[in-house]
């Protein structure tokens, strides 16, 4: 019997969820060499692509060292609370993806609160740390430090 884990990804719009999931799929060898992985595997709905948000949850599976990992995409907005709860009820754990510059946003907090109420233990992933370095360098130049 194969070991299976369901992992929900919680993130605000533009905090890097698509990139993170794409890189996980590449690491899990889901793409052939040279295959276009344009970042729209989980946001395949036209309205989702147009608005840049997740409305309907989807999943993708990767195999990693003998474990099948189902990556569950979660809507990041409180308007889709029913869909959020449905997905989180299927999860064994979650990744909380936070933009280093913007920090946690209200919609992210809403989804995180639901995850914590269900007893999920999030793994915090801080993304876009390099953008903080750029801002720091600009400040240092501005103040001649």
TrEMBL record:
It holds the Pfam family GTP_EFTU. Residues 2-145 form the Tr-type G domain. GO terms for molecular function: GTP binding; GTPase activity. Coiled coil: none annotated. GO terms for cellular component: cytosol; ribonucleoprotein complex. InterPro entries: G_TR_CS, P-loop_NTPase, Small_GTP-bd, T_Tr_GTP-bd_dom. It comes from the Bacteria. This is GTP-binding protein TypA. It comes from Segatella baroniae B14.
């Amino acid at each position: 019997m194969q070991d299976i884990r369901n992992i929900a990804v919680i993130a605000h719009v533009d905090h890097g969820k698509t990139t993170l999931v794409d890189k996980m799929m590449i690491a899990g060898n889901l793409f052939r060499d040279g295959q276009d992985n344009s970042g729209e595997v989980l946001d395949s709905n036209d309205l989702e692509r147009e608005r840049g948000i997740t409305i309907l949850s989807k999943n993708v599976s990767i195999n990693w060292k003998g474990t099948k990992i189902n990556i569950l995409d979660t809507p990041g907005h409180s308007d889709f609370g029913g869909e959020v709860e449905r997905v989180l009820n299927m999860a064994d754990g979650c990744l909380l993806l936070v933009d280093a510059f913007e920090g946690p946003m209200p919609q992210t907090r809403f989804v995180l609160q639901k995850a914590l109420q269900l007893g999920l233990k999030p793994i915090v992933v801080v993304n876009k740390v390099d953008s903080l370095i750029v801002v720091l360098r600009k400040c240092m130049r501005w103040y001649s430090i």
